[in-house]
Amino acid sequence: MNKPLAGAALSLLLMGAAAAPAVAAPAPAVPAVAVTYAGTVALSNCSGSVVRAPGSQPDDPALVLSNGHCLESGMPAAGEVVKDKASSRSFSLLNAAGTKVATLRASKISYATMTDTDVSLYQLTKSYAQIQSQYGIAPLTLNDVRPAQGASIKVVSAYWKRTYSCSVDGFAYRLKEGGWTWKDSVRYTSSCNTIGGTSGSPVIDTSTGKVVAVNNTGNEDGGRCTVNNPCEVDQSGAVTVRQGINYAQQTYILVPCIGPGSTVDLNRPGCTLPKP
User: Fold this and answer.
1) Integer Cα distance of 250 and 184 in angstroms
2) Degrees to nearest 5, angle at CA 85 with 81 and 86
3) Domains and CATH numbers, the chain
4) pLDDT per residue over 178-208, tens digit each?
């Protein structure tokens, strides 16, 4: 766990339209969205971000997204789910330039687990509207669809004030690290060489500006399925070790579980998160 982006056209024009073959025009490139530090937060040992579901309202209590293994109480055991547990944890909120503009405080851990995924959602004492009004910072939006292989992404760490740019290389059917197993993990291309302290960073799709995953681990030493050395396990049980490659947990699965008032309701239709 890594805890604590002309010449040929001119020739055709000079030759005339009649000389040019009839071909379909290429699809226009999708411009990249400017990705900044705005809305990211630094924890005592990890990174995170203020996030909203697509249906969240301005007056809803704000949520902070990070990893389950970043909890102040320590890493949840395999099979453990933390739900609606009181917390007064503080978070340093950054603006676009990466400057701290406020200290936000949690009222509770709405949800956290390291089973099937590695995620934590803290509910804050302020609403999205209050944060935007007082500090000029809007929340990041969770995408409600699975990221695509090959998508351009950025991993934005508030802890280190560092951004990593790469692409979604693919997906690990199962990712095993020590006693934990995560499903359908995002595997980065090698340029996202994240380090300790980047855990919990939002993974942002540069074509939409939305959060598609939460950064959580990488294989540091080439070890096989040990702590800090996760391994991939395919549907047939074959194990693959990719030293130096890092991973994230998809976040579209969170969206169906977030109800009115930022309540995490595990019984909502479509919610597949593990239950206590």
Assistant:
1) 8
2) 160
3) 40-142+254-262 (2.40.10), 152-252 (2.40.10.10)
4) 999 999 999 999 999 999 999 999 999 999 9
